[in-house]
Design goal:
80% of the residues lie in helices and 0% in strands. With 151 residues, the protein is mostly helical. The protein is extended, with a radius of gyration of 22 Å. Pfam families: SpoVAC_SpoVAEB. Keywords: Membrane, Transmembrane, Transmembrane helix. This is Stage V sporulation protein AC.
């Protein structure tokens, strides 16, 4: 690359840097904290209500709460509300289990016009697939290490 071209690239990069909007880091962190906390609080309320009204074990209530939260995340994604929440909250909407539901349903909704097989079914795990692969893979490695070092 010539010196002239390098100067043009640097000038262009400086121009781009001046035009890119700067994120409001503190405001984004506060929104992520508030929305993520609200989602977790809703999950805790659901957990406490189920635990106080039904005679399930604590682990069963945790499983039921997880299922309900996944359903809520998928439902809100399906009707377009979770995207609005995600735009405002950022990582605050990704961390709870509802973010996982959103990562599965959103690609499926995007490709539904291509049909159920080649659209919804084929694209459903595009985003969540790597999460599942690395999650399962790392849990297997941890399990093996636990088994080896436990003895």
């Amino acid at each position: 690359m010539s010196k002239n071209q390098a100067n043009k690239n640097k000038a262009y990069q400086n121009y781009v840097d001046t035009k890119i909007p700067k994120p409001h880091l503190l405001k984004n962190c506060i929104w992520a904290f508030l929305v993520g906390g609200a989602i977790c609080t809703i999950g805790e309320v659901i957990h406490r209500v189920i635990e106080s009204h039904y005679k399930y074990s604590h682990l069963d209530v945790s499983d039921i709460t997880t299922l309900i939260m996944v359903f809520i995340g998928a439902f809100l994604t399906g009707i377009g509300i979770y995207d609005i929440i995600g735009k405002r909250a950022g990582a605050g909407s990704l961390i709870p289990i509802t973010g996982f539901a959103n990562s599965i349903v959103a690609p499926a909704m995007e490709f539904k016009r291509e049909g159920f097989i080649m659209g919804v079914a084929a694209k459903m795990f595009v985003l969540a697939g790597p999460v599942l692969v690395y999650g399962i893979g790392s849990s297997v490695i941890v399990g093996i290490l636990y088994y080896i070092f436990k003895k």
